[in-house]
Design goal:
CATH superfamily: Glutaredoxin
Strand content: 5-15%
Mean pLDDT: 88
Order of helices and strands: HEEHEHHHHHHEEH
Structural class: alpha+beta
Number of strands: 5
Oligomer: single chain
Number of domains: 1
CATH architecture: 3-Layer(aba) Sandwich
Largest sheet: 5 strands, mixed
CATH class: Alpha Beta
């Protein structure tokens, strides 16, 4: 075998080995413990649902299509593990990609001020395709319509939206996400470990594994 042939074979072996390694990493059930400041994963003021021992945290963007896909999986998880899981939602609007992401986050926070956070949270995800491509003013009008459907004080809601009265909440969530090393949505943590697969079966299996540790 010629020297050139041996060198070519060596290069191919290294390349194949690298591809295999990338494949294994991409298909693992969860990543390592999150990089960054883990104390920023939630705050006492973070929106939460449920009271279970397993902590599920989503950094999400209401306009993000992938978040829209994961939304029903998380809803089903909460239903199936009622009393066993506590779910936290935190804002991470990707404004460079989604022009209505920040406004929709403000809509949810304005609804929270009237004790209807989860109702608006669900409404925004369930109607995502109806407002995602709208111009800013039209999207705000759509959100005001949702506020009316949910029985909110619409004038109070619209003022909060126009004045961005709860932007500081969104900014704090974003700062915490950055401290955690979050760079995409949805980013989900289960008991402090970042998941890499958010289909229902993978989420369920991860929760089961955590429950079996108790």
């Amino acid at each position: 075998m010629s020297r050139e042939s041996k060198m070519l074979i060596g290069i191919l072996v290294v390349a194949v080995g690298g591809l295999v390694g990338m494949f294994v990493l991409a298909n693992s059930g969860a990543s390592n413990t999150p990089v960054g400041d883990k104390t920023k994963i939630i705050r006492d003021t973070s929106h939460k649902e449920g009271s279970g021992a397993v902590q599920v945290v989503e950094y999400g963007d209401y306009q993000c299509p992938a978040c829209g896909v994961v939304y029903p999986n998380l809803k089903q998880l909460m239903k199936d593990y009622d009393g066993k899981v506590t779910f936290y939602f935190r804002n991470f609007p990707l404004t460079s990609l989604h022009p209505n992401a920040n406004a929709s986050a403000n809509a949810a926070e304005a609804a929270a001020n009237q004790n209807k956070f989860w109702e608006m949270h669900d409404k925004l995800y369930e109607t995502q395709k109806d407002w995602s491509d709208l111009a800013s003013n039209d999207a705000d009008a759509k959100f005001a319509g949702y506020a009316k459907e949910l029985g909110l004080d619409v004038d109070k809601f619209k003022k909060a939206l126009a004045d961005k009265q709860f932007q500081s909440v969104i900014d704090q969530d974003t700062a915490d996400a950055n401290a955690m090393g979050v760079n995409s949505t949805p980013t989900v943590y289960i008991n402090g470990v970042k998941t890499s697969k958010n289909d229902y079966a993978s989420l369920r299996d991860t929760v089961e594994a955590q429950l079996n540790k108790k």
